[in-house]
Amino acid sequence: MEPRFDLMANELGAKIAKRIYNVALAIQNSPLPQTTQDLVMLRASQINGCGFCVDCHTKDATAAGESALRLHLVAAWRESTVFTEAERAALALTEEGTRLADTHHGVHDETWAQIRKHYNDDQIAALVSLIAMINANNRLNVIVRNPGGSYQPGQFTSMTN
C-alpha cells in the first residue's frame, strides 16, 4: 500500500506535524503515567484502523518495556485481567471519547467517575488531550493512507521546536 500524500514532504504539512508533535511532547512530559499513555494511544489507533499508529505505539511501548501480553490484550481489555483499575478507566474513556459518533451519550457519567477516582486534574487534562490528539493523528494517517510496518522507535524525536 502506498500513501496517497506525504504530509512531511509538504511545507505546510510538515509545519503542522511539528506543532502536533510539540503538543504530544507536552502530554508525554505530563504526570499521566507513560504506560497509560501507550495503552490509550494503541487502543484509539486500533478502533480507528490506523495501521501506522498501531505500528508506532506498539513499537514505542515495547521499547519502553511494556509486555507483549498486555499489548496483545489491549483490544480485549474488558475481558482481560492484566490491566489496573486506573488503566481500565483510561481505556473506557478512550473508547467512549473515540466513538463519539456511535452514541448520543458521549462519555458516560460512570466512566467519568472512574477517571476522577484514579487521576488528578493534571493527569485528566493530559488524558483528555491525549485522546483528542491521538484521534486527530489517526485521522491524518488514515486519510492519507500511511501504512504500518516501517516505523522505528524514536524516529520523530528530531521534530521539536
What is the CATH homologous superfamily assignment? Answer: AhpD-like
Overall CATH class: Mainly Alpha
Name the poorly predicted regions: none
Tell me the structural class. Answer: mainly alpha
Going by CATH, the architecture would be Up-down Bundle
Total DSSP helices: 7
Largest sheet: none
- Average pLDDT over all residues: 94
Distance between the termini: 31 Å
Order of helices and strands: HHHHHHH
What integer value in Å does the Rg equal?
16 Å
User: Helical content, roughly?
Assistant: 55-70%
Q: Approximately how much beta-strand content do the residues carry? A: under 5%
Write down how many β-strands occur, each being a DSSP E stretch of 2 or more residues: 0
Summed up, the domain count is 1
The name of the CATH topology is AhpD-like
Polypeptide structure, described:
This is AhpD family alkylhydroperoxidase. Pfam families: CMD. This protein is mainly alpha-helical. The protein has one domain: AhpD-like.
Keywords:
single chain, mainly alpha, 161 residues, AhpD-like
Provide a brief overview of the structure.
It is built from 7 helices and no strands. It is an all-alpha fold and 161 residues long. The protein has one domain (34-150): AhpD-like, CATH 1.20.1290.
